[in-house]
Design goal:
The complex is a heterodimer of chains A (about 350) and B (about 270). Helix content of chain A is about 25%, strand content about 35%. Chain A is built from nine helices and 18 strands. Chain A has a six-stranded mixed β-sheet with strand order 6-7-8-3-9-10, sandwiched between helices. The chains are: A alpha+beta (about 350), B mainly alpha (about 270).
Chain lengths: ~350, ~270
């Protein structure tokens, strides 16, 4: 069931278009992630949905109601800001209770909701702490709890994890997904981190230069990028132009190919695609360890390629400078028309 | 490890020594002036030749003493209140909503210090002498209106420094999204968060108004004698009486500053 509908939204500052022609539908209880490089307009779009920035054109519907002109307070939203925007002079408990008390909710209800929310995000012990003594992860959880305590229809998150280190980010992503399952809120999440987008999003909208390049589920976006721009941004694809394909793989193609690094395999000793797909000879220029993955950087007739191999405990990495045969299975080639 | 510890200990002793010397240098003149106020005679010797309450009794019996204290307190409290009412909202509004105005404000608060006092005083006399429809000469208001622009920078500089450390725009937006108006957020979140700056502003404004002489002498002089004017009058007479007056001045400034800090700190605690 559609909960958010954006129709032909556009915004410009003077001559500079920030975003345009934005159509988006988010179902109730889903998290949609807006992902794209810095400056692509995703935060402005989020602020437009929040009512903090007015669109130049287009309509915003929330739960079937046209909210395009409505002030933020009427939209029934919660928002987590990039720098958290916690109230620095108030304790964690007071931060959460502030809006409820302002709206004259009964004291017993305020206490119950604040208590429940602090427990949900694991901050009961920090109830009387002020924001400046909290860690980045704790601040982020307070911001999330403050946004959720009013039980908004829609939760907006503006790069809420960008200031955190990788380990805490990973944990908080899982926590956010758990909270969404428990509370069932609808969310619009902005990030420039493609991995974060794939983990958090029920749907992903890839945005570049103020336009949606592709909207779909994480699997659709990752496995079937619609354009070169999406392939380059999501999944770290090898994007091969027709001339490169002809020269390196000896195949004629009327469109570009996108090949995942993990879809490219060594022809010797364990061919991933050689035999039933195109292959080429390449030289290993660098080997990098990415945790469970070994990333080989290759050079094949002037073309740079990336190849990911599973880093098994018994695996012996091939040396830099070695000549190898690489190949890709036909079904793992994504053809890009734009 | 032991070497490092003893080096730290040596440094700590040195730190305390330096701080002690600074404190003595600051306190000694105050003590000396106060002691002179109760000295029978103090010239040509390290310590006074005897102690007496005579100078205090004489000073307290002088009607100008309490009059000047009253005048100074009226001027200081009025300056404090008026400059707070004018400067604090102006700094907040300029920072939060009008960055263009903020640049002008930064220039304006230093302007009174760039102009010689005599020029400003003559300008204020001309402005408030009825040439532009406002007559304040001969009243304490001319002095208060003279001090307010001078005191604005005491709010502006520390407040700006505090506000720069706050994500004010995001805090206001967080309030708007939650249905809380800007006025409530400014009053209950932003202002308490810059309370240390306000304390500095209050204390500095009070200290300016109660200790300033040049403007007081030029703008009100004998019409509305303040502590500083009386000090100037007594300067040509008894040094003991002047010492009593200066000691009283120190006590008033210390008491008022303590009250200001206590009140603002308690309010911060409540927020």
């Amino acid at each position: 069931m559609t909960f958010i509908r954006l129709e032909k939204l556009s915004k410009a500052y003077g001559d500079k278009a920030i975003f345009g022609d934005i159509d988006l539908v988010i179902a109730r209880g889903q998290i949609c992630v807006l992902v794209g490089p810095s400056g692509c307009g995703k935060t402005t779009l989020l602020r437009t949905v929040a009512g903090l920035t007015a669109p130049d054109q287009g309509r915003i519907f929330i739960d079937g109601e046209d909210m395009t002109e409505a002030p933020p307070r009427r939209r029934d939203i919660g928002m987590v800001f990039q720098q958290y925007a916690l109230f620095p002079n108030l304790t964690v408990e007071q931060n959460l209770a502030f809006a409820l008390e302002h709206h004259k909710r009964p004291k017993a209800e305020v206490k119950r909701r604040v208590g429940a929310m602090m427990e949900l995000v694991g901050l009961t012990e920090k109830a009387r702490a002020r924001p400046h003594v909290l860690s980045g992860g704790q601040k982020q959880r307070v911001a999330l709890a403050r946004a959720l305590v009013t039980e908004p229809k829609l939760l907006l998150l503006d790069e809420p994890m960008s200031a955190l280190d990788a380990q805490i980010r990973k944990r908080l992503r899982e926590e956010l997904k758990r909270l969404q399952k428990e509370l069932g809120f609808t969310g619009l999440f902005v990030t420039h981190d493609q991995e974060e987008a794939l983990v958090i999003g029920d749907r992903i909208a890839v945005m570049q230069e103020g336009r949606f390049q592709q909207v779909g589920t994480p699997l659709e976006i990752y496995n079937a990028p619609a354009s070169r721009a999406v392939a380059r941004f999501i999944g770290d694809f090898n994007v091969l132009e027709p001339a490169d394909i002809q020269r390196v793989f000896g195949r004629a193609s009327d469109c570009a190919w996108a090949v995942h690094p993990e879809a490219l395999g060594f022809a010797e000793p364990a061919p991933a695609g050689a035999g039933n797909g195109p292959g080429a000879n390449a030289r290993i220029t660098a080997v990098r360890l990415l945790g469970s993955i070994l990333r080989y950087e290759l050079e094949a007739d002037g073309l740079s390629l990336k190849l990911d191999a599973l880093n098994r405990p018994d695996a012996v990495p091939l040396p830099e400078g070695a000549m190898v045969a690489v190949g890709v299975a036909e079904q793992n080639i994504r053809k890009l028309r734009s | 490890m032991a070497d490092r510890f003893s080096a730290m200990e040596r440094r700590s002793v040195l730190d305390r020594l330096v701080i002690g010397v600074v404190v003595i240098l600051q306190v000694l003149p105050v003590l000396a002036v106060s002691l002179n106020g109760i000295a029978v005679e103090w010239s040509g010797s390290v310590l006074p030749e005897g102690l007496t309450m005579r100078w205090i009794d004489q000073m307290v019996a002088d009607p100008r003493f309490f009059e000047s204290i009253e005048h100074s307190l009226v001027i200081s409290i009025a300056t404090l209140a008026l400059s707070a009412v004018v400067a604090i909202p102006a700094v907040l509004v300029a920072h939060c909503y009008l960055p263009v105005l903020d640049r002008w404000l930064a220039a304006l608060v230093v302007l009174p210090y760039a102009v010689p006092s005599i020029v400003l005083a003559v300008g204020l006399l001309r402005l408030y002498a009825g040439n532009y429809g406002v007559v304040l000469t001969g009243t304490p208001w001319i002095l208060i209106f003279g001090y307010v622009p001078l005191g604005a920078s005491f709010y502006y500089v520390p407040m700006k420094s505090n506000l720069r450390g706050l994500p004010v725009t995001e805090i206001l937006e967080a309030g708007r999204v939650a249905g809380i108006g800007d006025a409530t957020i400014l009053r209950r979140v932003i202002l308490p968060s810059v309370a240390p700056a306000l304390v500095v502003g209050f204390v500095m404004n009070f200290a300016l108004a109660i200790s300033e002489f040049v403007y007081a002498n030029l703008l009100v002089g004998g019409f509305y004698p303040t502590l500083q004017i009386l000090m100037n009058v007594l300067d040509s007479g008894s040094g003991h009486l002047l010492s009593v007056l200066i000691a009283a001045y120190f006590i008033i400034v210390w008491a008022a500053t303590s009250i200001l800090i206590a009140v603002t700190s308690r309010r911060r605690g409540v927020a």
